[in-house]
Structure formats: structure tokens, C-alpha cells
Specification:
Two copies of one chain form a homodimer.
Chain A (H helix, E strand, L loop, with lengths): L6 H8 L3 H8 L11 H14 L5 H7 L5 E6 L6 H20 L3 E5 L3 E2 L2 E2 L13 E5 L5 H9 L4 E4 L11 E4 L1 H14 L4 E5 L6 H17 L2 E5 L4 H6 L4 E6 H13 L9 E7 L11 E4 L2 H18 L4 E4 L2 E3 L8
Helix pairs in contact in A: 1-2, 1-3, 5-11, 7-8
Chain B binds a DNA duplex (30 and 30 nucleotides) through helix 2 and helix 4.
Chain lengths: 330, 330
DNA sequence: TCAAGATGCTAATTCGAATTATTACAGGCT
DNA sequence: AGCCTGTAATAATTCGAATTAGCATCTTGA
């Protein structure tokens, strides 16, 4: 393998010192730094000819900034089983990274005992200027360590504090769920059920919280169950069901129609956008969409702010209501 | 943000030298390196107490490997319109990269006038230890420059020489197409047509070449046309059609059946696996599959060989025959 | 008792780039 | 000549860890 070129090599070729090459490369014009036009041109010509680029490792050892943004996921991002979930986020991330002229470093390597970890014995997280974290849940210890070590990062998805506020760009599930309940109440619904975990990941907790707030505000009846069969719901007199999982909502609609019930005539089904499993499209569930692509874009922008101003941005993007055909009047 | 501890700090605390800390940390026992048990324990205790971990950047500077593999595509990889094409390759790439402990650098920044280029005024291609190139076609000048500059890379897809042999991992389209013709001849077919560009990208040329070799070897009739209507084919007495594009094959089957013809009774349709446009799945075309995922894996392995032994690997992986239901006897 | 050998540790150097302090030199002025 | 002022470039240092050569000190054995 041809040895990688160094500034020393470039310097030799251009007949100058390594320091001069560095100064030309970084286009330094500050007071106290002067390079003759002719010399500058000569060095640039050698750089152009050789295609030299500074070794990011060495560069980063000395100061900061590689124009490399890291993307960390606990799982492989490409496998098609995960494609539906990661894809839109990554689209946004790539788009924005392209815009600000940064390359993306996908951390695929930091494994300990078969599982990906942010911090392993030889974590490369610091190779990047900063890092976007992607995944439904993030290890709290990892988050805490990121904070204490002062590694610039932004989480996609809201995160609770982990020994300090966690910079994030999330979706405003609370408002989105409240909006669904508001609409249903306006249509005459008075007895609601929320089906889903409602805990664990912040995204689940936020949805449930939005649900509870909304039913409380309207003074209507709302229960939460992890799972529920059709009979159970009917027996309880429930007229509107909200399911965390898209596929659960779809299954419910199919089950109801299979029994000769009308949706939304006899039962309204609303879904809360967490499509971790593929679901049939043709049902046209009423609910909301998660602005995944936009979240990816904003996360990169937020990371830029972190890097430039050492801030701790926290932002929730609005979800868009999806009309669908499974919400009706009572 | 608390300043990060260095080995120097640890050394001071333990009352030893920085070198000793490094030796203890790396558990060096080689000949010529001896650390007393007592000293070793003292250093380890300080390390444990402080939670010190070596700065990976500094560590990397020392050996000449960044453990970063580049992935270059002329287009964004994530957008869903391209997902079908890139996805399987990337799966394989990610998988193998994970295996050998390398991170992936996606070049999203190298744009000149809106288009991605490998070499721009400020090419970052050398950020990676080596690079995998992905795309149906690659700019020949870019390839030539990669070769002359001695940048370690592997192309996914066979490539003609570009001022020298181009390292690549491709699919053996020639053999795959020959195999299809062989099977058709065995079933009694004597008049063939090849529909598709048959030039431009190597992948197209290879298919056509395989076709020509096969018909020549069997002494049967084979014509090549970029496009052809059903009538044209029937008039010429053709009984077996090979289409480069999957969607062309599907269209042909539908057209034939629309006219009351039987496929494969009256006409056999074979497709050559280049699915650049989405095609209906339900037809069950006979043809072959391209081992995309495996190509991705092998490309990374090949790149490893390039990096370690400065070789120029060239490899064609076999395509797998797909039985389908559109090939029959005459 | 003293050379030979083992033991335990450290000084110094390296990696590649960025930065600061400093030198070298030309030209203008007294 | 002697002195100052710009200008242009370089030597030297820094970042943090890894490595190697080598310096003390302590044992042995004859």
C-alpha cells in the first residue's frame, strides 16, 4: 500500500516547511501570518496534484473539528427489517449533513459481547466532531457518561434528564395525542381506552401522558391497558381506542369488521404512529405521522448549535394529523 | 466540563512515569518489559479510582490505521427511491465492517456544483483507510485517478481497466445469462431475443456478451434490440426473450397475456436481474438473482486484502437461478 | 570482591497536524 | 554603516499514548 502522504511530504515537494503547508491548507491570513502568493500557489498546486487531505486523527488530536458527524445506533442501520424505522431519520440526517458539508461516520464497530455500546474499551465516538444518537431507547448510563465527558451529541427522540439535561430533537407526542382525544371528544366520544406499554421509552410515556392530560381536561373516561381484546373493550362501553402500535390498531379494525362491527360506526380506532412492526396500509387508520425526516434534519442542525455555542438544545417537533377513515361520531 | 485525565495525570498520582502507566494499561509482559507487582497494583488502583480510559484518538495516531472504511456513492444512499438498490449492498458492507471492527464513513460532503464527485477541490476520500465504491456506473476518469494516486479502493460491480486493472467484486452476469440460454435451448428454444441496452455499464455489456457466447455455442439464433414490441418478436418467430430490465420482462408478460397468448406456452420470458425500477412481484419471472448482500460483504473483505497486501482483487460472484414460471418448452 | 546477569523503571522519541515564537532578509532612512 | 520596519518563512512545541533504548539497582556465582 502506498504510504499515506503527510504534510511533511507535501512540504518537501513544494520546497517549504511543514508549518507553511499547514498555514496554506488552513488558509490562515491572521495577523502575524504571511505567505507570499507565489508560495501559496505552489503549495496548493502540490496539494491538488496529490489529492492530499489532512489526517483526521492527527487533526483531531490537536484541536477539534473534522467536519465528520457521527451517527450511533444500537443496531445495524441497513438491514431491511429495520429500514422502515431508521430510513427516514437517516434521510434527514444525510440531507442536512450534505448541506453543511460534513461527512457521516456510522459507528458499526464498538461492540462488547455482541452488543453495540457507545463506550467500549476502544470507543471511537470521539473521532467525530459530534454525534447523533438514534434508537427508541438509549442506555441511561451511556447518556450520563456522554454528558460528564462533555461529548457533543444530540439524541433523536426526547430523553429524560440523565444527570443533566439531554440535548434532543423529538416529536411532540403529548400534543399529538391530546389533539386526537380533543377531536374524538368533539365528535361525542366519552369513554376512551389507551392500548400500549405507556412506559419504558420516553416516546411511550409521552403518549400516555398526553392521553391522561386530555381525558382529565375534558372530564371524560380514559383507561390504560397494555393489551386488550375486542370483547373487553365493548363490554366496558368504550367507543374510542388509541393504540400505540400501528399494527395493533390495524388488527383491532380487522377483528371488529370480522365480527360484523362497523369502524368507525361502532368503534373508532386511533393510532399513535409508532410503527415498529410493518402494518397494512389499506386500512387508512386515523392518527398522526411522526416527522422523522425533519427530526433527522433538525438533529443535525441542533448538533451544529451544540458544537458552536455549547448549548443544550431541546426541541419537540409537531406531528401531523392524519385524517384516515377510522374516527367517526358516536 | 471536567478536563479529561491523561496518562500523565495518572502517572503523577501513582508516583510513576507516563511510560509505566502505558505499560500497565496495556498489560505488556513482553521480553524486556517488567513491572513489579506492587507498582502495577498501585497504578491499576489509581486507574480504577479515577475511571481513566485512554484517549482513542491519540492511540490511533500511533498506528497507521484509522479503522475507517469509506463508502462512496454518487447519490444520497438513504432516500427511499434509491433504497431498493443500495440497501442490500449496504447491509453486506455494514455487516462485514462490523465484523472486522471498522466504522463506515459516508461521503456526503464531496459536492461540486450540486453533484457528488470523488475528487473535488477539497476531496476527503483519503479520510478513510480505504473506500468502497457503489453505483451502476463509475466515472472512468475518477477510477483512473484513484489508481494513479494509489488510493486503496474496491468497486462493487465489475469494471473495465481504467489505465490499469480495477479492483472489484462483481456478479457473474455472463455465466448467469449463459445458464439461462442453456436451459432454454435444452427445452427446445432456437430463436432468442435480448432486449436491453447491452452497453454502457459493464453490467449490461457482460449480460449481452454472455448471451452472444451462449447462442454462438449452441448455434442458435439470437438477436439484440434495445427495445421491441410483442408483434415484432412474434413476427420474427422468437420463442424466448431475455430482458435486461425486470420491469420490461414483466410488461412483456402482461402484454402477451392481454392478447390471449400463453406465457410460457407461446413465449418464454427470462429476466436478467437488473431491477432499477420497481416491478410487479406476482408474475414470478424466471431469471436469476444478484447476490447484492454477499457482494457488499466480499467487497469489504477484498478491501481488507488491498489494505494488507496491496493486491488487486477481482472477483465475480455467481448469481442464483430463479425458477419462476415464465420459462417453458417449445 | 567484582563481573555478569537479572530486575524495575524512565527518558526520549514517534505518530501528523496546528500554532507560536523566532529568524532571515530586503529595502528605506538617517 | 547602523537602525528600523515589513515581509516571508521556519524551528520548536503541543496534543496523548505507545514504544524502545538504556540507566540504575540488586543478585549471583566463582
Amino acid at each position: 500500500m502506498a504510504k499515506r502522504l503527510t504534510q511533511q511530504d507535501i512540504a518537501r515537494m513544494a520546497g517549504v516547511s511543514q508549518a507553511t503547508v499547514s498555514l496554506v491548507l488552513n488558509n490562515r491570513q491572521d495577523a502575524g501570518v504571511r505567505i507570499a502568493q507565489e508560495t501559496r500557489a505552489r503549495v496548493l498546486e502540490v496539494i491538488r496534484r496529490t489529492g492530499y487531505v489532512a489526517n483526521p486523527i492527527a487533526r483531531r488530536l490537536h484541536d477539534h473539528r473534522n467536519r465528520i458527524l457521527g451517527v450511533f445506533t444500537y443496531e445495524a442501520v441497513f438491514p431491511s427489517t429495520r429500514a422502515d424505522f431508521y430510513q427516514p431519520f437517516l434521510e434527514g440526517i444525510e440531507e442536512q449533513a450534505e448541506e453543511i458539508g460534513c461527512d457521516l461516520l456510522l459507528f458499526t464497530s464498538a461492540k462488547t459481547g455482541g452488543k453495540r455500546r457507545i463506550f467500549s474499551d476502544d470507543s471511537r465516538i470521539r473521532l467525530a466532531d459530534g454525534c447523533v444518537l438514534l434508537g427508541r431507547t438509549l442506555d441511561r448510563d451511556d447518556l450520563a457518561q456522554l454528558l460528564t465527558e462533555g461529548i457533543p451529541f444530540v439524541s433523536i427522540g426526547r430523553r429524560d434528564d440523565a444527570g443533566g439535561p439531554v440535548p434532543h430533537v423529538g416529536a411532540d407526542y403529548r400534543a399529538a395525542v391530546r389533539n386526537l382525544v380533543d377531536r374524538a371528544v368533539a365528535l361525542g366520544h366519552r369513554k376512551f381506552a389507551y392500548i400500549g406499554a405507556g412506559n419504558g421509552a420516553e416516546s411511550s410515556a409521552d403518549r400516555l401522558r398526553g392521553f391522561r392530560e386530555a381525558v382529565a381536561a375534558h372530564g371524560v373516561d380514559g383507561t390504560h391497558v397494555p393489551f386488550a381484546g375486542l370483547d373487553q373493550l365493548r363490554d366496558a362501553g368504550i367507543t374510542a381506542v388509541l393504540t400505540e402500535e400501528v399494527s395493533d390498531g390495524a388488527a383491532l379494525v380487522l377483528a371488529a369488521r370480522g365480527r360484523g362491527l362497523s369502524v368507525p360506526g361502532d368503534l373508532s380506532v386511533l393510532t399513535l404512529g409508532a410503527a415498529t412492526r410493518p402494518a397494512p396500509e389499506e386500512i387508512g387508520l386515523t392518527g398522526f405521522t411522526i416527522p422523522r425526516r425533519e427530526m433527522g434534519r433538525r438533529a443535525v442542525q441542533a448538533l451544529t448549535e451544540v458544537l458552536e455555542n455549547a448549548t443544550t438544545p431541546q426541541e419537540l417537533l409537531p406531528c401531523e394529523f392524519v385524517e384516515g377513515s377510522t374516527l367517526g361520531g358516536v
